[in-house]
Amino acid sequence: MSADSGDRFERHRWLYRTMFTIRTVEERLARSFMAGLIHGACHTYVGEEAVAAGVCAGLTDDDAVFSTHRGHGHALAKGVSPDALIAELYGRETGISHGRGGSMHLFAPEIGLMGTSGIVGPCILQAAGAGYSARLLGNGSVGVAFFGDGAVGNGAFHEGLNLAAIYDLPVLFVCENNLYATEVPFSHASKNPDVASRAANYGIPGIGVDGNDVLAVHEAAIEALRRARAGEGPTLIEAKTYRTRPHAEGMGLTGVYRTEEEVAEWREKDPISRFRRRILSDETMTASDLDRIEADVRAEVEEAEKEAAASPWPDGGTADRHVYRETV
Amino acid sequence: MTEKTFTEAAREALSEAMDADPAIFVVGEGAGERGGNFETTAGLYEKHGPLRLCDTPICERGFIGMCTGAAMTGARPVVDFMFTDFILDGLGELINQTSKMQYMSNGRLKMPMVLRGCIGIGHSAATHHSGSYYPFFVHIPGFRVALPSNPADAKGLLATALRSEDPVFFMEHRHLLNLKGPVPDGEHRVPFGQAAVVREGTDATVVALTVMVHHAFQVAEELSGEGISLEIIDPRTVAPLDADTILASVRKTGRLLIVDETFMPCGIGAEISARVTEHGFDELDAPIKRLNGSHVPTPYSPSLEQAVVPDRASIEEAVRELLAE
Ligand SMILES: Cc1ncc(C[n+]2csc(CCOP(=O)(O)OP(=O)(O)O)c2C)c(N)n1
Ligand SMILES: [Mg+2]
């Protein structure tokens, strides 16, 4: 195997495993939600795995990711382990935020996960801030914001892209356009159906990609990261995708606008089976290689769930810790 | 000690901190080459350049959010708001993000961020340029709030803020900016949560904030001619609040007046009053009294504007009422 094909094999393996891990964890969480093991909201990332995997495959632990309410996929792709994630949703001491956060407040700054968020918008500004730090401290890292189409009409989108553009900050703005913000179609929220073209307003490149094609996402991210690290400034990436589960667990899969047909159509475009077909036709891995990855991941996630369920609750007496850094 | 204005003293603290710590940068509209609307950064751009003295577009929410992200990733931002009124455009960022970041991350993130701006009523600035709003921030877990009343404390409190790992509001009253006073040379830090007893006395305690410290002091000087002895306390920071110093004073005087330019309902006076009642009820010889700015948007015309702010006359009247109880 040449070095190149070796790299390609490793990359494909990582991408497949990451996407399959996200899917498996999310499906496990959906069952846990029904079983009452998750105490708050749970927005899954099913159908959108290619975006987190494709982008995060280009990142190091020093690159800072700022995520959304639908952030399990970003957390896992950034390197949070399934057990730390599941335990957090279960409200346990072993959770990634030690039970202080839950689904929408997952933090692992030591590997560059700077938080999922319960508020739509601020991640865009904070990623610009990570870009500012990177320039100021000259440490070569990059800020990455993931956000939905729902954030595009928010002032944070305008202010964040403008700030990153004027200071040439090393930032990736990754819009996951899944066509709906809860139950509001993007076409009702925006006269302009396109997100990527808005980059021109800020004088930066905007790239539209098929968000269900992990290699296309990855390629766009690699180019944007190259620009960022070369001091050429921010890039806006619009990944067009779709969630094939409800907005949040416990809500309806379809509603006033989303139809059964539309969901079925997008399930046909499932990013994981699509990548599987691609790998097999490229012959980077065999079916049994892929089956082995899937079996591994399933076992890992089942084990992670068991551990989470058996983990201790945080001590209520510690609830007021970490409000301030220093005690005065 | 050198005689300096409040603004010069604060700028000295900033300049020394920027020399020592390359992670500090300042953002604001005109914070760059112009040197700040109130000369808060004058002369620093020439030394540190545009990345550390950063001019921003008019997007308060945007640059608060950006600075929050920068603080999360190893920088130490200073947001220079010009007027504190403009902070209101970024309240969601501050309260949902900046103040909660350390907690949400279980203490793994730090939030070293200084938020400074001019506060206070005066100069017919009218209601969009007269706000103080600091009681809001005292209410929120995660913030520190410093209210210097003189040049030495401006230097010392800002120096402490610039080394803090928590987000700190540093609020500068418009009537104090050109006030001159002795300022310690070299390193000078005032710890948070330590009130200053500005004047000792035995008949009543007056807790006053920012510019009201000066009014209360003058009233105390005048009344001393009548044999009235007032103790004046300047909390200097209201989050954390040094309730112990206030309680110790009330133990001595048995009477308490709190003078604050900001609104009365749910304000600093209400908080101090509640704490003294909880922990020093038996020491009180009279009901606690509060004197605040009127609970109205700030009017423009000088005659209206004067009517909504406590002044020496209204402080004196409040003191006499308190002593007559
Ligand atoms: C500022 C704010 N307003 C409203 C909400 C409630 N909310 C949560 S998710 C959501 C829809 C977000 O849509 P989008 O950004 O497209 O992300 P998606 O859920 O489609 O992934 C809304 C309105 C919120 N979290 N934050
Ligand atoms: Mg959406």
Describe the structure.
Chain A has 328 residues and is an alpha/beta fold. Chain A has one domain (3-242, 250-309): Thiamin diphosphate (ThDP)-binding fold, Pyr/PP domains (Rossmann fold), CATH 3.40.50. Chain A has helices at 3-34, 49-56, 72-78, 82-89, 122-137, 155-166, 186-189, 214-229, 260-268, 271-282, 287-310; strands spanning 64-66, 143-148, 171-177, 180-181, 184-185, 206-210, 235-240. In chain A, β4 and β5 form a beta hairpin. In chain B, β13 (256-260), α10 (268-280) and β14 (289-292) form a beta-alpha-beta unit. With 325 residues, chain B is α/β, with parallel strands linked by helices. The model of chain B has no long low-confidence stretch (mean pLDDT 97). Chain B is built from twelve helices and 14 strands. Classes of the chains: A alpha/beta (328), B alpha/beta (325). The interface between A and B is large, with 47 and 50 residues. Bound molecules: thiamine diphosphate (TPP) and magnesium ion. Thiamine diphosphate is lined by residues 69-70, 118-121, 148-151, 178, 180-182, 247 of chain A.
**Order of strands in the sheet with most strands of chain B:** 3-2-4-5-7-6-12
Question: Order of strands across the biggest sheet of chain A?
Answer: 1-2-3-7-6
Alpha carbon gap, first and last residue of chain B: 43 Å
The count of domains of chain A is 1
| CATH-defined fold name of the largest domain in chain B | Rossmann fold
Number of β-strand runs of chain A: 7
Order of helices and strands of chain A: HHEHHHEHEEEHEHEHHH
How many helical stretches of chain A? 11
Could you state the CATH homologous superfamily of the largest domain in chain B?
Thiamin diphosphate (ThDP)-binding fold, Pyr/PP domains
What percent strand of chain B? 15-25%
SSE pattern of chain B: EHEHEHEHHEHEHEEEEHEEHEHEHH
CATH hierarchy class name of the largest domain in chain B: Alpha Beta
Tell me which oligomeric state these chains represent. heterodimer
